[in-house]
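Q: I'm teaching a short session on how sequence maps to structure, and I want students to see two examples side by side rather than one. Could you give me a first protein with its sequence written out and its structure tokens following it? Keep the formatting plain so it prints cleanly on a handout.
A: Of course. Example one:
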Amino acid sequence: MPKRISIQPHFGLDELEARYRQAIDPVEACHYQIIWLLAQGRLTDEVAVVTGYSRSWIYELVTGYNQLGSESLGDHRHDNPGAKALLSPQQQVKLWQALQSTDPYGEA
């Protein structure tokens, strides 16, 4: 028989279900659904079929949840400021001005 994943009891089943159903962000909702289903004792393969997530991603999600709790769930891409700009603010102004001006060679 397949081994069931152990979920740390950061929240009870009722609280996990409530967070799943009340989540506004779809990624966060799906993450809570995965944890909720696994906490019920569902098998990883069953949860993978229901949610469309791979087994390896489910394991990664559970590892984060077991270590950090709900802070690990959700779409953290929103918090990523991105890479540092390649142009300085002064260079960006010059580029913008150049793009607004007419072509010095008179070509369109």
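Q: Perfect. Now a second example for contrast.
A: Example two:
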Amino acid sequence: MLIEVVKSKIHNVSVTEANLNYIGSITIDEDLMDAAGIIENEKVQVVNINNGERLDTYVIKGERGSGQICLNGAAARKVAVGDVVIIISYASMDPEEAKNFSPRILFPDTSTNKLI
């Protein structure tokens, strides 16, 4: 049996852009992706602190060092620029492995989305 556990979390970053006319996904600054261990096309959950919305989508690389957090396509309707979100990725593992697993949790500066 496998269970899902938090693999990584980018806690409290600000939405810098909402692009309705894009195919879909969330664009994340590549520095944040690397630090969190999130890869391009990985499925993530996005939780909007401002309005309570939750959505699942996939990640595309944003410009490294830009602080970019952009919700694209239909997801753009669930956020406003300036909203604070939490981005969570999950992994499936057996319960014994999960007991010893430590997720990567980032707390970037909310005003710049850069690592402190």
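Q: What should students look for in example two?
A: Point them to this: Strands lie at 3-14, 17-19, 25-29, 43-48, 54-62, 69-72, 84-93, 104-106. Also worth mentioning: The chain has two helices and eight strands.
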